[in-house]
Design brief:
Growth Hormone, Chain: A; single chain; 3 domains
């Protein structure tokens, strides 16, 4: 098996995967700023308009794992390009939406296309880069995802200032078309002639879909009993799903990989890290507004320090993870993040943009230091033929952590604690747990067995 793509094909493949990652992240967040306009234009309530964002996120978290298993069977590039094509077609239909039900249907189609691409993007990154550069490649991909998420609200606001709201969806179409045009540079498909586990896919969708929908209903709905029943149904489906997957040699949920301590610790660390960041970031604007009377412009300026710093640190830490243990880099990153979050929890009484900004930079640097090496260790501890499954789990973990973080932030706001220092303290505690999970991977008994099983993923002489 070749070690990565040759140049210059590798560069074209990097551009293709970067464009695809960017458009899926932008489209997931860009609609947020347009919700009031959409509600007014379509004659619906603000609460109903929120479904434009919710159905997209719910479809993503529900379908990522089943689609990653499909990618293993039909070929990664084939699924990635098919997802891009579906996304582009649905995006074009969004432009012609004149009712909320129609818009929601095409948003589901958009999310399915995005999920198909995201579910195999990490696996494609592993095939694009040589093993000695895997951390660097994941760092670049992390920067693209973070930058796209940070850019989305700004891009949405700009589009709305000069054009009607359908154009915010059309603005992502060029990314999809460019990615499709150069997508042939991606690694050639290597399909596996195995039957697809449709029952397992349905159980996976029910597990994540019902659980997340129930949690959302518990926070935002009017019937705690119904919401709790939905959560219980999701958990029951999860138990059946996991028990069924234990007997499958190529499971949709990689339960066999999760049995490896290094893999399980990496996934648990990623989940708590994303949960921490989203809990804090969604509550911060309310605290700055009510506690320090920040204007929207001041809040945006202060919050930009986080992604701006992460964009610099993530590729650096990814490159370092090709030479140094990811557990060490992740532990250092979470120490920095905990320090930044505690500093943000105890802001001075007369805090300004710079006071908040340097603390956000420290926190963003910590998360940037953690995430790329963590993703590298997950992929590096996975057999190459199972990379799509591991990559799908990475994307699912990120989305699940962000969704649960949004739910936790909403719960804190509903109880009156969201505008206090409580979210920062909660996030600091979660970040500390992620740091402990990262440090635990330094134990030889945890990391060596996995390293020996996947020696092909590690360049000769590299330090792990």
């Amino acid at each position: 098996m070749t070690d990565g793509l040759p140049m210059p094909r590798r560069l074209r493949a990097i551009v293709a995967i970067s464009l695809g990652s960017a458009l899926t992240m932008i489209d997931g967040a860009i609609a947020t700023v347009a919700l009031p306009t959409i509600a007014a234009d379509l004659g619906t309530s603000p609460a109903a308009a929120v479904l434009v964002v919710t159905v997209y996120q719910l479809t993503l978290v529900t379908t990522l794992l089943p689609l990653s298993a499909l990618g293993d069977r039909i070929g990664l590039r084939r699924l990635y390009q098919g997802g891009q094509l579906l996304f582009a077609a649905a995006t074009l239909l969004c432009f012609f939406a004149r009712s909320l039900p129609f818009l929601l249907v095409v948003r589901v189609a958009q999310a399915l296309g995005a999920a198909a691409a995201l579910s195999v993007s990490s696996a494609l990154v592993r095939s694009i880069y040589p093993a000695r550069m895997l951390g660097r490649g994941l760092g670049i991909n992390t920067v693209v995802i973070a930058s796209a998420g940070a850019l989305a609200p700004t891009l949405g606001g700009f589009v709305l200032s000069v054009a009607p709201w359908p154009w915010i969806f059309a603005s992502t179409l060029p990314f999809a078309l460019m990615s499709l045009a150069i997508g042939r540079a991606l690694p050639d498909p290597e399909p596996h002639d195995e039957p697809y586990d449709l029952a397992g896919a349905l159980l996976s969708a029910c597990t994540f879909g019902l659980t997340v929908a129930g949690l959302e209903a518990l926070v935002h709905g009017d019937s705690p009993v119904v919401a709790t029943a939905i959560i219980v149904a999701g958990l029951v489906a999860g138990v059946v799903f996991v028990r069924r997957e234990l007997g499958d040699p190529r499971p949709i949920l990689p339960v066999d990989l999760l049995a490896r301590p290094v893999f399980a610790l990496s996934v648990a660390g990623a989940l708590t890290a994303f949960l921490a960041s989203m809990t804090f970031l969604l509550s911060l604007p309310f605290r700055l507004k009510h506690g320090w009377q920040f204007t929207p412009g001041q809040t945006g300026a202060a919050m930009m320090f986080w992604p701006a710093t992460s964009m610099v640190v993530a590729p650096l830490s990814g490159a370092l993870s090709d030479r140094y243990p990811a557990g060490l880099l992740g532990a250092i990153g979470m120490v920095m993040a905990v320090g930044g979050l505690l500093a943000l929890a105890f802001l001075p009484a007369e805090a300004g943009v710079i006071d908040v900004g340097w603390r956000m930079s420290l926190t963003g640097a910590g998360f940037g230091m953690f995430l790329s090496p963590n993703a590298r260790l997950i992929l590096g501890s996975t057999p190459r033929e199972r990379t799509a499954s591991a990559g799908g789990l990475i994307s699912t973990t990120r989305l699940l952590g962000q969704t649960l973080g949004a739910t936790l932030a909403a719960a804190l706001l509903a109880t009156g604690l969201g505008a206090s220092r409580t979210p920062a303290l909660v996030a600091a505690g979660l970040a500390a747990l992620a740091g402990l999970a990262s440090a635990a991977r330094l134990r030889p008994a945890v990391r060596l067995p996995a390293m020996e099983e996947v020696a092909d993923a590690q360049p000769e002489g590299a330090v792990r």
